[in-house]
């Protein structure tokens, strides 16, 4: 289990170094999402049952998020992207809470398994990507001049400085909210295990239920954070693709 001295393994391509744990766990999350969708969408039937019900419920759930934040005509434009985003963040949040893999090398633990969203670079990159996409679709819909007017000069032009600052704060809040919740969950799980190691075997009757309760709570938080990330992303999208009144 993770402790406070744990580090990720690194690799480099030329002069550029990469966090191997984050890269491998991000790729694994993508593979899991693809495998899940592939499995659930094989042999689709007019009367869904079993695995087809699961994927259809998930699609309807995400559509409900979009309907709450976008006009009806815009929902279909961002539905597939939102389902993919929700699935990836959900899997990335939960994957490091199920188990851990760390190797001790010279007294230093190197982690080979953790939630990629427990790394601020990943969450800030996701947040930046979503904010950039909102601007792209805003320009695509209104043209550059219309986008500037709708996004920054409406309803009154003197709010321009505040709206520019808001674009930067949106990235920070969107990314750090996700990172903080997932990272805190993993750290606390590690602290519970460290407590068991320090107190000895007699503490297991106390530590094990505590660990299981916190894992369950963290899984719930991971699902909530996937929901919040997609919801806020669509709120920001609505500000760019719908006219300000």
From TrEMBL:
InterPro entries on file: ATP_syn_F0_a_bact/chloroplast, ATP_synth_F0_asu, ATP_synth_F0_asu_AS, F0_ATP_A_sf
Transmembrane segments: 20-41, 80-101, 121-139, 187-207, 213-237
Main location group: membrane
Keywords for the protein's UniProt record, in alphabetical order: ATP synthesis, Cell membrane, CF(0), Hydrogen ion transport, Ion transport, Membrane, Transmembrane, Transmembrane helix, Transport
Membrane topology: Multi-pass membrane protein
Compartment(s) where it occurs, according to its Swiss-Prot or TrEMBL record: Cell membrane; Membrane
Function of the protein: Key component of the proton channel; it plays a direct role in the translocation of protons across the membrane.
PANTHER family: ATP SYNTHASE SUBUNIT A, CHLOROPLASTIC (PTHR42823:SF3)
Family: Belongs to the ATPase A chain family.
Protein known as: ATP synthase subunit a
């Amino acid at each position: 289990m993770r402790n406070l001295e744990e580090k990720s393994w690194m690799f480099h391509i030329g002069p550029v170094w990469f966090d191997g744990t984050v890269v491998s766990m991000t790729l694994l999350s993508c593979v899991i999402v693809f495998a899940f969708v592939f499995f659930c969408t094989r042999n689709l039937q007019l009367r869904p049952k079993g695995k087809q019900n699961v994927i259809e419920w998930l699609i309807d759930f995400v559509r409900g998020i979009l309907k709450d934040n976008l006009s009806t005509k815009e929902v279909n434009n961002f539905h597939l992207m939102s389902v993919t985003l929700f699935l990836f963040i959900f899997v990335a949040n939960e994957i490091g809470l199920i188990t851990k893999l760390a190797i001790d090398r010279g007294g230093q633990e190197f982690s080979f398994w953790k939630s990629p969203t427990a790394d601020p670079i990943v969450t800030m990159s996701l947040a930046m990507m979503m904010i950039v996409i909102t601007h792209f679709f805003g320009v695509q819909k209104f043209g550059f001049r219309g986008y500037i007017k709708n996004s920054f000069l409406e309803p009154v032009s003197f709010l321009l400085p505040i709206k520019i600052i808001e674009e930067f704060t949106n990235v920070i809040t969107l990314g750090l909210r996700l990172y903080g919740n997932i990272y805190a969950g993993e750290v606390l799980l590690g602290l519970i295990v460290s407590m068991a190691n320090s107190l000895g075997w007699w503490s297991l009757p106390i530590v094990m239920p505590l660990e299981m309760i916190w894992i369950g709570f963290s899984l719930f938080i991971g699902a909530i954070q996937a929901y919040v990330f997609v919801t806020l992303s669509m709120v920001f999208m609505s500000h760019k693709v719908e006219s300000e009144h």
